[in-house]
Amino acid sequence: MLLLSLLISTSNYVGAERCQSCHPQAFQTWQQSAHARAFEGLQTDQKKQTRCTVCHTLTPDDLSQPLAGVQCESCHGAGRYYSPHYVMKDKELARAVGLVVPNEQTCKRCHDGSAPNIEPFDYAKAWARIAHGKQ
């Protein structure tokens, strides 16, 4: 339980800018996506509502620019412990200290029936728009 609380603490997020140093193509794909602008898309009153910021920011506890929007760690988990280069080189170690390999269920934490979407969430179509890294 302690490990889980350490991995989700706000201070454990490093932000997409840090991910960019090793993953420039994934960063560029993200930067051009709606995920990167998710917080900006909220109306002023929505930016104050946790039910909105929980999905439109990296963490609803810190709405500062470095953590605004749906970032790498929104899907891959807080990066403090897996972001060092030597850890990322060891995939098993990276996963052991918090790196999440996202899947459809990861997306559905936010893209669910309660989200105000015009059309139902289609994982295959959504992934095609944001695909990055090894497929």
Describe the model.
With 135 residues, this protein is mainly α. 40% of the residues lie in helices and 0% in strands. The chain has a single domain, classed as Orthogonal Bundle (Flavocytochrome C3, Chain A, domain 2), CATH 1.10.1130.
* Overall average pLDDT: 88
Coarse morphology = globular
Number of domains: 1
Number of helices: 9
Strand content: under 5%
The CATH class designation is Mainly Alpha
Q: State the end-to-end CA separation.
A: 32 Å
Described by strand count, sense and barrel closure, the largest sheet is: none
The percent range for helix content is 40-55%
Derived structural class: mainly alpha
- Overall number of strands: 0
Looking at the structure, the CATH topology is: Flavocytochrome C3, Chain A, domain 2
CATH architecture descriptor name: Orthogonal Bundle
Low-confidence stretches: 1-7
**How would you spell out the order of helices and strands?**
HHHHHHHHH
Radius of gyration: 15 Å
Keywords:
135 residues; mainly alpha; Flavocytochrome C3, Chain A, domain 2; globular
Question: How would you sum up this structure in a few lines?
Answer:
The protein has helices at about 1-10, 15-20, 25-30, 50-55, 70-75, 85-90, 90-95, 105, 125-130. With about 140 residues, the chain is mainly alpha-helical.
Describe how the helices and strands are arranged.
Layout: H1 2-8, H2 16-20, H3 24-31, H4 50-56, H5 72-76, H6 85-88, H7 91-96, H8 104-107, H9 123-130
